[in-house]
Write a structure and sequence with these properties.
Chain lengths: 555, 240
C-alpha cells in the first residue's frame, strides 16, 4: 500500500491538473514513469522489505556492483591516463563514448524486446485510461535510465582523470554535461529498433521464443562479423595516417560509430554548438524510434500474449503417453523451460556458438586468424582448448536455472523430488545443450590443429572438464543468490547476482587457465594441463556435493 | 492421516505466522480450515506441503515425519495452492504427464485417470494447448487433475473453489467425498463457510496464527446456528 502511495503521490496536484486535457496527459506520463522507475534495480523492494535475509542479500549484491564499478573505473581511468600521457587527449571522449555505445547496443539488442514488450503490467496498463505513448515512454525511460547509469560509469571516471590532467575550461563541462545525457540515445534507439524487428517478426509465429532467440543470436553474430570486417580493413589504411595516431584513432572510431567522434570532439573542444547539434540528432533519432515503438506496441503485444490455443486435443492421443524416469522427465521439463524464453536462450547459448565460431575461424581462416583478435602474442594451437573451454562456460544456463523457476517454485517443492534429482536435471540439460556445439567445435579444432595423441587428449579433455565445472558452478552460484519473485525474465538473466557471478566465474577461469598456459614452459605443458584438469575435477566434485547438501533444505 | 503438533512458524521481520498449532486429521475426514485474511491458513498449508520450513513442532503424514523423511511424506499427498501458477511453457497434457512421471504412475493408469478427470472437468480438448493460454479456472482444473492423477491419500487444498465454475465445484465436492470414502482425507482452507458447513465433518478456526477452535462440525455448529454465526462469535471472543 505504501508503495502505491509513493507511486501515486501528490493527489492534490492531480486534482488541480484535471483542468486541461494536456496537463492530465502529462500527469499520466509522470505517473507511469514513476511506476516504472520506482523499483529500478530493485531499490523500492530493498527500501521497504522487512526481511533481514533479503536485505543482506541485496547489500551483498550492492557490494558486488560497487566492486565491478571500481574495477571499471580503474580500467577506464588507466585508459584515459594512458591516452593523455601519449598526447592523445583529443580522442579520449570519442573513445569512451564509442566503448559505452557499443556495449549499450550489443546488450540492448539482446534485451530490448523482452523489456519493451514484457507481459508484467501490460494488462493493467491496458485497462488504465492512459495513452499507449505513456506506457511505452515509461518502459523506454527505464531502459534509458539504466543505460545512462552505465554510460556514466564509463564516462565519469574518465572525465575525472582527464580534467585532473588537462584542466579544461568551463565550456568543456557545459558540453560534457549536455553530451553525457545523449550518449545512450542512438545506441539505445538502434537496439530498440532491432528488438522491435526481432520481436515483431517472431510474434507472428507459433514458436515465438525460439525464433526470437535465433534472430537475436544472428544479429549479435552479425555485429561481431561487421566489427571483424572493420578491423580487417586496417591493412588498407594509408600509412601516412599512422604518423598522426589521433587521426588514425578518429578514423577507426568513425567507422565503428561516427556520432562518438562528433560528440567526442565537441566535448573536448568545448564546442557547445556542435554538442547541441549532436544532442539534437540523438534526440531526433530516439524520438522517431520511440514513435515507431508506440505504433506497433499493441499489435506486437497482442500477437505475443494473445495465445495460440487450438482446443483440438483428442482423447485417442492419450494412448501415446509414455512413462519416463524422474530424471528424464525433469530434464525434458528443463529443456522446455529453456526454449520457452528467448532472452534465456539468447544470453546463454552465445558462449557455445562463439566456441564453434572460434574453431571455425581456426579451420577456415588458418591458425593466425585467431591471433589477430587477441591483444597479446599466443600460440593458438596449444591455447585453443583453454580458450574453447573458457568461451563455452561464459554465461552458463545453470547459473540462473533455479531463479527461472519463479512463481512455479511451489510445484517442485511440494512434489516428492530430492534436491539431487532437481539439480542433476538442470546440470544434465545444460550438458546436453552444449554437447552438439562441443562436438562440432572439437571436430573443427581437430581438423584445424591436426594434433598428436597427447594434444588430442587435452583438446578433448580441457573444454569438457571446464564445461562440467561451469554447469556445477552455475548451480552453486544460483543456490546462493536465487531470485524467485521476479517481475521480468530480464532481471534474472541479465541483472541478477547469479547471472553476473556465473558470467564472471567462467571468464576468470578462462583467463587464469590461459595465463597459466602462457607462463608455463612448453615442456611442462602436459603437466600443467593434467594439473588444471585434476584441480577442476576436484573443485567440481566438492561444489557438486556442497550443492546437494545445501539444497537438502528444499526437501 | 495428518498430525500437526505444536507447529510454529514466524516470518522474520513481521513476526507474523503460526504459533503452537496442533491438529489431527483422520482417514475419511473432510477438514475445513477457516480464518480471516492473514490468519495463517496458507502458512500452515505450505508448511504441511513442505514448501515452507517451520521453526518448531512436528508434522506427520500417514505416520511419516515430514522433517525426517520429506520425500516419503510428499508421496502421500497432493497440494494445490490458491493461485496455481503452473508451468506456462508446457501443454496441459505435458504437465499431467510430468506429474505422473514423478509419482511413477503406470502408462495405463495415467491414461485412464487423465481421461476420466479431464472429461469430468471438461478440459480434454484444451490438454494439447499451452498452459499460458488457460484461464484461471482452467489452470485450477488442471492442477486438480494433476493432484488426482496419482491417487493421493491426503489432499491439501488452499481455497480450492475460487475460480471454479459451478459444475466443476460440484465435481470437486464429489471427488472429495470419493477420496474420503476410499480412506483418504482432505484438508482445505476456504472463506466460503456455507460450503465448509455442508461438505466437512470437521473444522478448525484460526485467528492471528493461533488455533481458537477445532473439532467435529456437529459439535461446533450447534442447533439453530450456522458456521458463519459460530465463526463470528468465536473470532470476536478471541479478540477480547
Amino acid at each position: 500500500m505504501r508503495e502505491n502511495e509513493n507511486v501515486l503521490k501528490k493527489p492534490e496536484n492531480r486534482e488541480k491538473s484535471r483542468g486541461t486535457g494536456q496537463s492530465e496527459t502529462m500527469e499520466q506520463f509522470r505517473a507511469m514513469a514513476r511506476l516504472e522507475l520506482c523499483n529500478i534495480f530493485g531499490l523500492n523492494v530493498l527500501r521497504h522489505t522487512k526481511d533481514p535475509k533479503a536485505k543482506r542479500k541485496s547489500s551483498g549484491l550492492f557490494c558486488l556492483y560497487v566492486f565491478l564499478l571500481a574495477v571499471t573505473a580503474f580500467y577506464v581511468g588507466g585508459l584515459v591516463y594512458g591516452l593523455v600521457f601519449l598526447g592523445m587527449d583529443e580522442v579520449v571522449f570519442a573513445y569512451l563514448i564509442a566503448i559505452s555505445s557499443v556495449i549499450i547496443f550489443v546488450f540492448g539488442v539482446l534485451k530490448a524486446g523482452s523489456v519493451l514488450f514484457r507481459r508484467e503490467g501490460y494488462d493493467m496498463a491496458c485497462a488504465l485510461p492512459v495513452p499507449t505513448a505513456a506506457v511505452v515512454f515509461a518502459r523506454i525511460l527505464r531502459m534509458y535510465v539504466e543505460n545512462l547509469g552505465f554510460s556514466l560509469v564509463v564516462l565519469l571516471p574518465g572525465t575525472i582523470v582527464y580534467a585532473w590532467n588537462v584542466r579544461p575550461g568551463a565550456a568543456f563541462y557545459l558540453a560534457l554535461w549536455l553530451g553525457m545525457l545523449s550518449v545512450p540515445m542512438i545506441p539505445m534507439a538502434g537496439a530498440v529498433l532491432a528488438g522491435v524487428l526481432v520481436t515483431g517478426a517472431s510474434s507472428r509465429m507459433r514458436h515465438k521464443s525460439l525464433v526470437a532467440a535465433g534472430l537475436s543470436i544472428l544479429l549479435v553474430l552479425g555485429i561481431f562479423w561487421l566489427t571483424s570486417r572493420m578491423s580487417a580493413l586496417e591493412g588498407a589504411l594509408d600509412l601516412e595516417m599512422l604518423k598522426n595516431v589521433s587521426a588514425f584513432v578518429f578514423m577507426m572510431l568513425g567507422r565503428l560509430y561516427a556520432p562518438a567522434v562528433w560528440l567526442g570532439k565537441a566535448v573536448v573542444y568545448g564546442d557547445v554548438l556542435h554538442c547541441l547539434m549532436c544532442v539534437g540528432l540523438s534526440l531526433a533519432i530516439f524520438a522517431v524510434v520511440s514513435a515507431g515503438v508506440c505504433a506497433c506496441f499493441h499489435p506486437i503485444c497482442r500477437n505475443l500474449y494473445g495465445g495460440f490455443a487450438r482446443h483440438d486435443y483428442k482423447v485417442e492421443e492419450l494412448g501415446g503417453l509414455k512413462g519416463k524416469s524422474v530424471l528424464v522427465s525433469l530434464c525434458c521439463r528443463e529443456f522446455r523451460r529453456y526454449f520457452a524464453s528467448s532472452i534465456y536462450v539468447a544470453n546463454t547459448i552465445i558462449g557455445p556458438i562463439m566456441g564453434c565460431v572460434i574453431s571455425g575461424m581456426l579451420l577456415f581462416f588458418g591458425m593466425d586468424s585467431l591471433e589477430a583478435y587477441i591483444p597479446f602474442p599466443i600460440d593458438s594451437g596449444s591455447l585453443a582448448p583453454f580458450l574453447l573451454g573458457g568461451v563455452f562456460c561464459m554465461m552458463t544456463a545453470t547459473s540462473t536455472s533455479i531463479s527461472m523457476e519463479g512463481k512455479n517454485w511451489w510445484i517442485v517443492k511440494s512434489l516428492p523430488l530430492s534436491a539431487k534429482h532437481i539439480l542433476d536435471a538442470k546440470i544434465l540439460m545444460n550438458l546436453l545443450l552444449v554437447l552438439p556445439f562441443y562436438l562440432a567445435a572439437e571436430v573443427m579444432l581437430f581438423l584445424a590443429v591436426r594434433p598428436g595423441i597427447m594434444e588430442a587428449l587435452w583438446t578433448l579433455l580441457v573444454p569438457a572438464v571446464t564445461i562440467v565445472f561451469s554447469c556445477v558452478y552455475g548451480i552453486t552460484v544460483n543456490l546462493h543468490f536465487p531470485v524467485l519473485n521476479w517481475e521480468s525474465e530480464v532481471s534474472v538473466v541479465k541483472q541478477s547476482a547469479s547471472a553476473v557471478l556465473g558470467g564472471i566465474g567462467g571468464f576468470i577461469l578462462a583467463i587464469l587457465c590461459l595465463l597459466a598456459a602462457m607462463v608455463v614452459p612448453k615442456e611442462y605443458a602436459d603437466v600443467l594441463r593434467l594439473g588444471l584438469c585434476v584441480v577442476l575435477i576436484l573443485v567440481t566434485a566438492v561444489l557438486y556435493k556442497g550443492n546437494n547438501r545445501n539444497a537438502m533444505a528444499w526437501e | 492421516m495428518l498430525t500437526i503438533e505444536h507447529l510454529t512458524k514466524h516470518y522474520k521481520g513481521s513476526g507474523k505466522g503460526v504459533t503452537d498449532l496442533s491438529l489431527h486429521i483422520a482417514p475419511g475426514d473432510v477438514y475445513a480450515f477457516i480464518g480471516h485474511n492473514g490468519a495463517g491458513k496458507t502458512t500452515t498449508l505450505k508448511c504441511v506441503a513442505g514448501i515452507l520450513d517451520f521453526d518448531g513442532g512436528t508434522i506427520l503424514v500417514d505416520g511419516i515425519n515430514l522433517r525426517e523423511n520429506p520425500i516419503a511424506c510428499k508421496r502421500q499427498f497432493a497440494y494445490i495452492p490458491d493461485n496455481p501458477d503452473i508451468y506456462e511453457y508446457l501443454t496441459g497434457i505435458q504437465y499431467l504427464n510430468f506429474i505422473a512421471d514423478v509419482f511413477a504412475v503406470g502408462a495405463g493408469e495415467r491414461q485412464e485417470r487423465i481421461k476420466k478427470y479431464a472429461d469430468e472437468f471438461e478440459i480434454t480438448a484444451s490438454l494439447g494447448d499451452l498452459v499460458s493460454t488457460y484461464s484461471h479456472g482452467m489452470k485450477q482444473k488442471l492442477a486438480l487433475i494433476s493432484a488426482l492423477v496419482h491417487r493421493p491419500k491426503l489432499l491439501i487444498l488452499d481455497e480450492p473453489f475460487v475460480g471454479l465454475d459451478p459444475k466443476a465445484a460440484v465435481i470437486l465436492k464429489n471427488v472429495m467425498h470419493r477420496i474420503c470414502e476410499e480412506g483418504g482425507a482432505i484438508f482445505f482452507s476456504t472463506h466460503v463457510l456455507d460450503v465448509a458447513e455442508k461438505l466437512c465433518n470437521r473444522v478448525a478456526i484460526i485467528k492471528d496464527g493461533t488455533l481458537i477452535a477445532s473439532g467435529e462440525m456437529e459439535e461446533i455448529v450447534k442447533a439453530g446456528q450456522s458456521l458463519e454465526d459460530i465463526f463470528m462469535e468465536v473470532v470476536e471472543d478471541a479478540g477480547e
